[in-house]
Amino acid sequence: MEEDTAHSETVSEMYADFLSNLVIGGLTDEAIHIAKKNFVDAGGLCIAARGQDYMQQVLASCQGQGPCTAIGHRNSLGAADAALINGVAIHGEDFDDTLEGAPIRVGAMVIPAVLAEAEQSGLSGERALLGIAAGLESVCRLNHVAAGHMHRAGFHPVGVIGALGAAAGAGVALGLERDRLAAAFGIAASFSSGIIEYLTDGAWTKRLHPGWAAQSGLKAARIAATGFFAPRTVFDGKHNFFKAFAPTASPEYAHLTERLGTDWYMTRIVFKPYACGTMIHPYIDCARKLAKRVESSDAIESIVCDTGEGLVHRLWEPLADKHAPPSGYAAKFSMPFCMALGFFENDAGLAQFSDEKASDSRYVEFASKISYRIDPENEYPRNYSGHMEVLLKSGEVIALSQPHMRGGMREPLTYREIVEKFHSNAKRGGWSERLGGRFIDFCENLESAPDLGGLREFQK
Fold first, then answer.
1. 330 and 443, same domain (yes or no)
2. CATH number at residue 359
3. Whether residue 430 sits in one domain with residue 392
4. Inside any domain, residue 427
5. Residue 39 shares a structural domain with residue 166
6. Is pLDDT at 386 greater than 80 in this prediction?
7. pLDDT tens-digit series, residues 113-162
8. In this model, does residue 1 exceed pLDDT 50?
9. 226 lies in the same domain as 315
10. Does pTM top 0.85 for this prediction?
11. Domain total for the chain?
12. Contact at 8 Å (CB) between 372 and 306?
């Protein structure tokens, strides 16, 4: 979509016009409910991760104090550092939300940016809630424009798209007008970053991407508010954002210009029952079903899984490495090993992804029996499904399928299940159920808060 935009409205300006006119009354009840659910889920993940080594290491990089809260940490921080810490914590254990149909995490980039902006600027809870909803919607729409192509180029959409979504959330919370929101996109696009080389050995850099995106988007909105000159053609110019980060795509800009305010993409956000790559979940369910069909893993000769081609380079290959991941964190991105956990543990939560289990010979042996074949009819990314053909040593063949992701749009987690997940995660991080209950109350009544001073109660 390269055209003369000198005298016409650009894509970023059209989308910014929608954002600048958003009001709480213009959100659907479902959109508000999803924003609050995401806040609850994110808070539990912040607490669950707070004692981990990587969190302490990132926290040690922060400089000085400020007015903003890193949930679960005692010291107040500057806005950028608080956004960084909360973003890393929400995504750190790979248990946060995702977007079905165009996979990306959503809340981990937006919520930290909006909370930090609201605290440092003394904004009301209503402004914060509006900013969260705007940011979530923006991540979802932006990631549909060139879905899948950023991964192919070696980029992690969480860090790339995430900076733009965080800018939208912080900018709307601040009440920026159209041209300043469009400028925020232009600035955030230059801040976007994040490569997927972490897949090689399970390195921790993936954990940094949402936190860096959150602080980048926050800073982009604040710079834009000063009147800074930024490219209004950031999405549709000659050297635009999508050409840089998704060069194989033919961008579908309609996602940023059509059915705005009537079709809420954020309703496609789903919440995870397992603490690993979302596309793996249906295969874990197949493995759990298999455990009920056989007496032991010794009865299994081999397992072949039908899979979508888009999953192979991240979750299946190199296959030998995926059979024996070097750590519990690396195991989160291994199709075979996650299936081994499902088979032996009947779960794949935070407790399952330990370094000890990653080195357990039973799990490695089971994972090594698993291979894949590409199914050209696989629905990914429109739908996440699992398909497994098991050859037993007796010669019997068992076929197992999971038609969709549990927790996804076809079988969503209930709000009660989200709350139970929150309490489980908060307990893991050392919070009492009473303190957790107060945090949930804060989230549920966010729009009534005169400011976000109440967050300071959760600096513990």
1. no
2. 3.30.1330.120
3. no
4. yes
5. yes
6. yes
7. 999 999 999 999 999 999 999 999 999 999 999 999 999 999 999 999 99
8. no
9. no
10. yes
11. 2
12. yes
48-106 pLDDT, tens per residue? 999 999 999 999 999 889 999 999 999 899 999 999 999 999 999 999 999 998 999 99
- Cα-trace Rg, the chain: 22
Indicate whether 389 and 302 sit together in one domain.
yes
For residues 284 and 405, what is the distance between their CA atoms, to the nearest angstrom?
10
Place 365 in a pLDDT band, splitting at 50, 70 and 90. very high
Which residue segment(s) compose the domain that 135 sits in?
11-272+420-458
- Single-letter residue type at 367: A
Distance CA 454, CA 460 (A): 13
442 in the same domain as 369 = no
Round to whole Å and give the CA distance between 71 and 456.
8
| Angle value at C-alpha 350, between 345 and 355, nearest 5 degrees | 80
